[in-house]
Design a protein that fits this description.
By secondary structure, this protein is α/β, with parallel strands linked by helices. It contains 11 helices and 14 strands.
Length: 333
């Protein structure tokens, strides 16, 4: 982390990226990705960060922009990543500002993010899942057929009819690894009904089957497929509640409130015996780039946001199939 300059100014803007087709999960559908970008200018050197306000967590575009604007004077006065942890709560606004500070540190020092963040080695490419959005059995079968060459598919599910959906995907993508995400859309009865069947279909993870805050039913429940915490896991303060319920935690920068807390959550989760998944909201390469840092050594990676857009930010991350390469400094870090 680099010391602040009195020349620093923080600005914020809204951007929209059209999605390729329609993206559906158990809570609804969207055709556009709405993001907020924070920029910190230090004497003409600019650091950027991107976030996605998420209504599920009580956020809106307006509220996130207001939060970011609210720390502008503190940034000008020298607020750094450590101070930001106290200045803003975990969430999208802090994520955008935190990632902008990390990017600015890289730009000012001329060092790549792995050195600025004191990592042991340069960032390596990672393989991302590719998401099939929730749809009819027939449409998800067709989507699986079109994506059968992809090594890891993530299926959005909803409850009733999900066994038929997963069976159809497996039949049409026999060689792909599969993970599924209920986005809080199941009951314990769904989990009991699907667990053994999904294990036979070689599903590797069931993500957030029950609603966050109402997942105590998972205590003592033995599922043949590992369970992952997404909506139930935000930052380190939520980690203790996951013990005995989940085996995997899904780290997303918009939940942790940036890379600073994400790195600490990852270390704490690993020390507690959890496997790591790195996820994303639907956004551009600028939002994914810091996720590549957390994705180093993770068991599962889901940074496919740019692959689901009709057009990504330029310059963006380099994708070769499902392989995501570390960001170039012209993008972030």
């Amino acid at each position: 982390m680099v010391g602040a300059s009195a020349k620093r100014t923080l600005s914020v803007r809204r951007e929209v990226f059209p999605i390729r087709g329609t993206f559906r999960i158990s809570r609804g559908a969207k055709t556009e990705a709405h993001v907020v970008v924070a920029e910190i200018d230090d004497g003409g050197v600019v650091g950027r960060g991107e976030c996605v306000p998420y209504a599920r967590y009580g956020e809106s575009m307006d509220s996130v922009v207001e939060q970011i604007e609210g720390v502008a004077s503190a940034i000008a006065a020298g607020l750094d990543q450590e101070g930001l942890l106290d200045a803003l709560p975990a969430g999208a606004a802090r994520n955008a500002v935190d990632c902008a500070l990390w990017d600015l540190s890289c730009k000012l020092t001329g060092q790549p993010i792995w050195q600025v963040a004191d990592l042991e080695a340069p960032l390596a490419p990672v393989v991302t899942a590719y998401t099939l959005s929730l749809d009819t059995v027939e449409n998800m079968a067709a989507a699986a057929r079109a994506s059968a060459r992809r090594p890891l598919l993530k299926l959005k599910l909803t409850g009733d009819g999900d066994l038929e959906r997963v069976t159809a995907v497996r039949e049409n993508a026999p060689d792909a690894r599969l993970i599924v995400d209920a986005n809080e859309g199941w009951t314990l009865e769904h989990l009991k009904r699907y667990g053994d069947a999904f294990a036979k279909l070689a599903v590797e993870l069931i993500e957030q089957p029950l609603p966050a805050g109402r997942d105590d039913d998972l205590l003592g429940f033995e599922c043949p497929v590992p369970l992952g915490a997404d909506e139930s896991c935000h930052d380190r303060s939520t980690l203790d509640e996951l013990r005995g319920k989940y085996q995997v935690v899904n780290i997303k920068l918009d939940k942790t409130g940036g890379l600073t807390e994400a790195m600490r959550l990852k270390a704490a989760a690993e020390a507690a015996g959890f496997d790591i998944m790195v996820g994303c909201m639907l956004a551009s390469s600028l939002a994914m780039a810091p996720g590549v840092v957390i994705a180093q050594g993770a068991k599962l990676v889901d940074l496919d946001g740019p692959l689901l857009l009709a057009e990504d930010r330029k310059p963006g991350l380099r994708f070769e199939g499902e392989t995501v390469f570390p960001p170039e400094p012209s993008l972030w870090g």
